[in-house]
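Why do we bother with a discrete structure alphabet at all? Because it lets us treat a fold like text: something you can write down, compare, and reason about line by line. To make this less abstract, here is a complete entry for PCDB1 protein. Read it the way you would read a sentence in a foreign language you are learning: slowly, and without expecting to understand everything at once.
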Amino acid sequence: IPEMTEPGSRFPLEGAQDLDIGRNTVQEYSISPENEYFSVSYGSRSGDDKYIELVLRKPLDREEEAEMNFFLIAVDRGSPPRSGSAEVEIVILDVNDNAPIFTKEVYIGKVLENMPEGSVVLTVLATDPDAGVNGDISYQLSQAVGQSDSTFVIDPITGEIKLTKPLDFEDSDHHELRVRATDGGGLSAICKVLVEVVDVNDNAPELVVSSFSSPLPENTVPGTVVALFTVRDRDSGANGKISCALQDQLFFSLRPAYKNYYELVTVSALDREETPQYILSAVHNLILTATDNGSPVKSGSTTIEIIVLDGNDNAPEFTQSVYKVTVREDMAVGSRVLQVTATDRDEGPNAEVKYS
């Protein structure tokens, strides 16, 4: 009997045979044990045309009870009464009255952004209590959000969701998918899949100079801002947490300005004659560096060349503080007595020496 059969439906049965006549022949039928789904109906329609039928009392559900057995008992009214019985076996035929059901409404998976193509992100699972084809389930990606439809693929049989290409946390830190499960009878269900992309330290910090003052006068006062720069890292968490340092410098220091902005400032008087150029570099002997806290650690660098302008802060110096020379009294006017020499550590016009 199909499980979708309407209550009140009737199913004819073969009646019992009794060789006696009158009250001694079959008079009534019953079911044992009593059954909540079926009752028995019997009687005569015309003349000796007797009938016996099973009557369905309530809807069947194959998923609750696929088969049921009971006895049909025929009783006469003789003295003593006699009875006979026959076993009735009811087989409930499946109808696709159940849609697939996912084990979760929302599946959440985490995947490293450097996982290779073909990696399994997670597996969805839907069940269907129907039998046969009606219980066979296939999976499809449905209503993918954004670029997710080209990034993932699902195995229609196992429900495994795999990568079709590497992910990039910096492009998108999560993906939202919809998966549809469809049974052989066309009924379906949908679940949501959230894929969280886990950041990998695959980006080095960047230093971007936004303002820079060079050349600098050598009489620049300590605390003067020479350069303003920002540091950034596209990674997140510890992978994107940056520390910036300036090492091995007596004339400059770094000063945090705002958030990820830093200022390069002078900390002592400059002297062009001592050091005409200050090269702040991050090559081996790291002087200006930005380093993240990822694993492995990545760092970025930039080179800043500061030129110091000359100031007339040096007086000419003679090669000797005292020149001693002997002159004969009969030397002619205009004769060279001696030559003095003075130098100036400044440059350009500041270094041009005149004698008087």
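What the structure line is telling us, in plain words: The chain has four domains: 9-91, 101-198, 206-309, 314-355. Confidence is low (pLDDT under 50) at residues 281-286.
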